[in-house]
Every structure is written in C-alpha cells, then in structure tokens.
Write a structure and sequence with these properties.
- By secondary structure, the protein is mainly β.
- The chain folds into two domains: about 5-95, OB fold (Dihydrolipoamide Acetyltransferase, E2P); about 105-350, Tachylectin-2, Chain A (5 Propeller).
- It has two helices and 28 strands.
- It has helices spanning about 5-15, 205-210; strands at about 30-40, 45-50, 55-60, 75-85, 90-95, 105, 115-120, 125-130, 140-145, 150-160, 165, 170-180, 180-190, 200, 215-220, 230-235, 235-240, 255, 260, 265-270, 275-280, 295, 305-310, 310-315, 315, 320-325, 330-340, 340-350.
- Strand 4 and strand 5 (about 90-95) form a beta hairpin.
- The protein is globular, with a radius of gyration of 22 Å.
- The relative contact order is 0.12.
Length: about 350
C-alpha cells in the first residue's frame, strides 16, 4: 500500500472518530497536534497527535497558500486543516504566543568572513575568508550543534568567493574571480566525508555562452531540490537557471519577473526555501543607518515577485549585503563591514513579514 493510500485510510478513520462524520459529509478536517519535523523547501510537515489508541505521527504535504512554514518550529503546538480530496494541509494555525524580540549578533567565532551560504537546517555554514590580506580567498565550512551554539571546526574547502551547496553537501557551485570578472565553477564529491575535487568550469554558464563578455554570474543559490540556480547576472539583475536533473547542464539564465517601483541596484539575491520570498540588497542606499536589505514576495512559483519593503530588527534598520534567511531556525544572516573587513551578522528570532519597515 503506498503512502497516499495509507494517508487516505488514516484520515477516513480520523474523520469518523474525531469529527463524528464520514469524509463524504465533510470536505475539510480540522485537527490539532505538535510539530515533530518541518521542511519548508519541500513543503512537508510531520505532526504528532495523541489519540485514544496512542500517539500517531502524520507526514503531510502542505499547500503553498496554507501558511508560512518558515514560521513553524519543531515542538510548536499547531492546529491545521486537511483536505482529503486534495490530500493536502490547506491551513496552518499556530497559536499566538509572546515571541522573543529580534536580536542582532555578530558571528565573531568566524573572524573576517563573507559571502555566506547555509544548510537548510541552519547548522552548517559555508563562507569566504582569507588568512591574511596577501592570501587568496577560500571557501570554508563550519558547523554548530544548534541555533544557540557557536560555529566550530572550520575547514578549508576550495578557492572562491560566492558559493552555494546542495542539501546533501555533495555538490558546490563557487564564483572564482579573475581580472575583475570571474566564472562559476563546480565542486563535486562522492560522500559528505570526502574532500571536494578541484573546481571545474560550468561551461554552459561561461561569459561566451551568455553572449556578452561583461555578463558574468555572481551570487549563486541552489534551490532545495537542486534543480534551480538563482543568481545575479551582472548587467541583467536577478535570474534563474534550471535543469531537469542534477547531472544535466543548466539552461541559460532567465530574468526573474519582479514588479517594483523601487529604484536602485538590487544585488546579492537569495530566494527562500519555499520559493516565495526574495531577499536582496539595494547597494545605492549608502547610509548605514538606513535599511537597504529588501524583501520581495509572491504567492505562487509562476507569479512575479512584488516589493514588500525594507527590513529592520526591532527598531534597528538592517543594512548589509548577502542576506540569507534560514526558516528552520528563524534567522536572517547578512554581511556588514567593520573597518573595511567583512563580518557575518545574524538576526535571531526573525520574522520577515513583521520586520518590514513601515
């Protein structure tokens, strides 16, 4: 029996036991439970429920319009609506609670560091750094055991600046600068414990293939499934490349549709796990006391992004580069320079929608 059949049978029983009616009599079931696991990228959630027959765990798919999975944390009590016909959770209702205030922290344990990328659980960070001003810049990796712990055990991976890595950690894409320009290079390894090999050029994304020697690609970002590469094409803005499977070549970059009245050079894009939030930096806002990290939103993958606003932490405007949001830990990371040296900052207890400057 496949998973969908199991779920259909399970919810038929729940509809009879909990709601006192058959599924033919009710289109949507409303239930309560505790969040056991959540994957914002895959739009799935595991909910633990206590029943007369004991504790059961339901593994469910969540509709995109059901609610913000990035705001849901493991251990949260939750009420949800399930549509047996669609076999989807159609609404998520987290109880209102006093949330901790947003707090900005500098990741001093990393020292001089920039261009960050994170695993979906927020426990692994990839970043660029160099050991001295005379040395080339390398991509490093470090890990932490929880959102409250320090990142430790730094390890050098490869030459490069901007970077992104697949969810399984077996593929990396890095930007290698060269004479004021640069190229995207691929890193591969067979297991998470192996070292990466030397970077190799992604030929289909080279400057010649883009049709203009000045249009090179920076700020790469892999989607959760590894089949979309969000990026910034110099001279064109925020774009996306796609592939049908990880072993296939990338398509040419296609500009993301963005509807906005905002002027300025929006750079260093990052699309969140669910594909519905776009973070970037307006580099034309120079005043460090003025917010320049922007949020764009859309309701579905096929919709254009619309400008939502610039972001703040409490009453502090967020000014920096390379914004990266980790929904699993409710953290927004960004890079800010101090005395010309980049440092990675993190906003704890971050809610993107509530953080919009009014």
């Amino acid at each position: 029996m496949n998973l969908r059949c199991v779920m259909r049978t399970l919810f038929t029983l729940i509809g009879i036991l909990v709601c006192g009616m058959t599924l033919s009599q009710a289109e949507v079931i409303e239930l309560e439970g505790t969040v056991k696991a959540v994957d914002a990228g895959a739009r799935t959630i595991s909910i633990e429920r206590k029943t007369a027959k004991g504790t059961r765990t339901l593994d469910l798919e969540v509709a995109k319009k059901a609610g913000d999975l990035g705001a849901v944390k493991v251990g949260d009590p939750i009420t949800f609506s399930y549509d047996p016909g669609l076999e989807l959770v159609t609404k998520l209702i987290s109880p209102e609670s006093e949330s901790a205030e947003a707090e900005v922290v500098v990741l001093k344990e990393l020292g001089t560091a920039g261009h960050p990328w994170f695993s979906r659980d927020g426990l692994t960070i990839y970043f660029s750094s160099r050991e001295s001003p005379q040395d080339p810049t390398f991509i490093w990796v470090a890990k932490r055991t929880s959102a409250e712990a320090l990142f430790k055990d730094k390890k050098k991976l490869s030459l490069g600046l901007d970077c992104t890595f697949s969810d399984d950690g077996l593929e990396g894409i890095v930007f290698l600068p060269e004479e004021g320009k640069g190229t995207l290079q691929s890193l591969k390894r067979k297991s998470a414990t192996d070292d990466f090999g030397r970077p190799t050029l992604i030929k289909e994304l080279g400057t010649k293939e883009l049709g203009d020697k000045n249009n090179f690609i920076v700020s790469p970002g892999l989607s959760a499934d590894g089949l979309t590469l969000y990026c910034e094409v110099l001279g064109k803005g925020t774009c996306a490349c796609t592939r049908s499977k990880p072993t296939n070549p990338w398509s040419k970059p296609k500009k993301l549709p963005i509807v906005t009245s905002e002027d300025g050079n929006q750079r260093f894009p990052y699309v969140a796990d669910d594909g519905l939030w776009l973070f970037c930096t307006n580099t034309e806002i120079a005043d460090p006391q003025t917010a320049n990290i922007a949020l764009y939103v859309r309701e579905n993958d096929d919709d254009p992004f619309s400008f939502k606003g610039y972001l703040k932490a409490g009453e502090t405007p967020l000014h920096g580069e390379f914004p990266r949001y980790v929904s699993a830990t409710k953290e927004l990371f960004f890079v800010k320079k101090k005395d010309g040296r980049p440092e990675i900052h993190v906003v704890k207890n971050f809610d993107p929608i509530k953080a919009v400057v009014e």
